[in-house]
C-alpha cells in the first residue's frame, strides 16, 4: 500500500516537474515575506522553510533516479560536486546516514530551537543547541574518516542540478520504456564498445543553432570530468587533518565557551577579530579619503 502510494507520488512529481519546481520556489519566497505579518509568523515561516527543504530533498532523489533512465542525448552531466557526493553515498551506508543526519539537522535546527524555547524556555533551548551541535560534530568527523580523510564539503548531499523540462510528461514506467526503445538514438562502436549519439539526435538536439564550434565546445572535457570521483577532493595529511578537526569542532567549542565561561571566545576567534579590525581600519581610511 505504502509502496504504491510512493510510486504514484513519484509519477506525479515526474509528470509535473516544472510546475512543482515553480511552486517550491514561490513557497520559498513566501518564507521571507511572512515574518512580522502576524503572531508567531516567524515560527510559521521557519516551519514552512524546513518542510520545503526536507520535501525538496526527497524530490531531488526522485529526479536523480529518473535522470539515470533518460536517453544519453538528453541526460544531463553531473557537476563535480554531485559526482563526488553521490559516489560516497553509494559506496558507504555510514556516509549516507551521516550526511542525511547532518543535512536534516541543518534544515531543522532553527525550527527546533524556536519550538523548544517557546515550550520550555531559554535554558532548555541552550541544552538542545549543545546537543545538536555535538551531533553535527560527530557527523562531520564520521564523514571525514569515511571519505578517507578528505575535506568535508558542503552540502554533503547532491544538489538539484536537473532541468525539470528534460523530463517528458509521462510516468516513470514510460521513462524506463523510453530508454529501452531509444536504442535507435545511439550506436555502439565496433571496437571500443562506447555508446555514441546518432546524427539525427545531435541535429534535433541542436536544431536552434548549427554552429559547429559551439557544439564541439560543449563536448570538451575538463580536468574534473576525467578524474575519478574520489580524486576530486585531495586527501588531508597532518596539519590538514588537524585544521579540519578544528573547523568541524569550532561551533561546538564556541558554544561551550559562551555557555559555561560566560565570556566571549578568545582563542579561536583571534584571527577573525584581527581581520575585522583590519577591514574596519581600511574602511575608515577610505571614508576619510572621500571627505578630504
From TrEMBL:
Listed A to Z, the keywords are:
Peroxisome, Peroxisome biogenesis
| Listed GO CC annotations | peroxisomal membrane
Compartments reported by the entry = Peroxisome membrane
Name the principal localization, coarsely classed.
membrane
| Entries under InterPro entries matching the protein | Pex16
* Biological processes, Gene Ontology terms: peroxisome organization
Pfam families tied to this protein: Pex16
Family to which the UniProt record says this protein belongs? Belongs to the peroxin-16 family.
What protein does this entry describe?
Answer: Peroxisomal membrane protein PEX16
Amino acid at each position: 500500500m505504502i509502496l504504491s502510494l510512493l510510486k504514484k507520488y513519484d509519477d506525479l512529481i515526474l509528470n509535473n516537474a516544472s510546475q512543482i519546481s515553480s511552486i517550491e520556489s514561490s513557497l520559498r519566497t513566501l518564507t521571507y515575506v511572512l515574518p512580522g505579518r502576524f503572531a508567531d509568523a516567524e515560527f510559521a515561516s521557519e516551519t514552512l522553510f524546513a518542510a520545503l527543504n526536507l520535501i525538496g530533498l526527497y524530490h531531488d532523489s526522485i529526479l536523480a533516479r529518473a535522470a539515470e533512465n533518460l536517453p544519453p542525448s538528453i541526460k544531463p552531466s553531473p557537476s563535480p560536486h554531485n559526482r563526488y557526493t553521490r559516489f560516497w553515498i553509494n559506496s558507504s551506508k555510514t556516509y549516507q546516514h551521516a550526511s542525511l543526519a547532518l543535512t536534516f539537522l541543518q534544515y531543522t535546527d532553527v525550527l527546533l530551537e524556536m519550538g523548544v524555547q517557546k515550550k520550555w524556555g531559554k535554558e532548555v533551548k541552550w541544552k538542545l543547541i549543545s546537543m545538536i551541535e555535538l551531533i553535527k560534530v560527530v557527523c562531520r568527523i564520521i564523514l571525514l574518516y569515511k571519505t578517507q580523510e578528505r575535506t568535508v564539503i558542503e552540502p554533503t548531499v547532491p544538489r538539484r542540478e536537473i532541468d525539470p523540462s528534460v523530463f517528458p510528461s509521462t510516468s516513470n514506467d514510460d521513462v524506463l520504456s523510453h530508454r529501452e526503445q531509444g536504442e535507435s538514438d545511439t550506436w555502439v562502436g565496433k571496437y571500443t564498445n562506447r555508446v555514441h549519439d546518432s546524427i539525427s539526435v545531435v541535429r534535433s538536439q541542436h536544431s536552434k543553432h548549427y554552429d559547429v564550434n559551439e557544439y564541439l565546445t560543449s563536448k570538451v572535457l575538463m580536468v574534473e570530468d576525467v578524474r575519478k570521483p574520489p580524486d576530486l577532493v585531495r586527501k588531508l595529511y597532518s596539519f590538514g587533518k588537524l585544521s579540519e578537526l578544528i573547523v568541524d569542532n569550532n561551533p561546538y567549542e564556541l558554544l561551550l565557551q559562551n555557555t559555561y565561561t560566560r565570556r566571549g571566545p578568545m582563542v579561536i576567534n583571534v584571527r577573525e577579530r584581527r581581520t575585522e579590525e583590519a577591514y574596519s581600519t581600511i574602511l575608515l581610511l577610505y571614508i576619510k579619503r572621500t571627505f578630504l
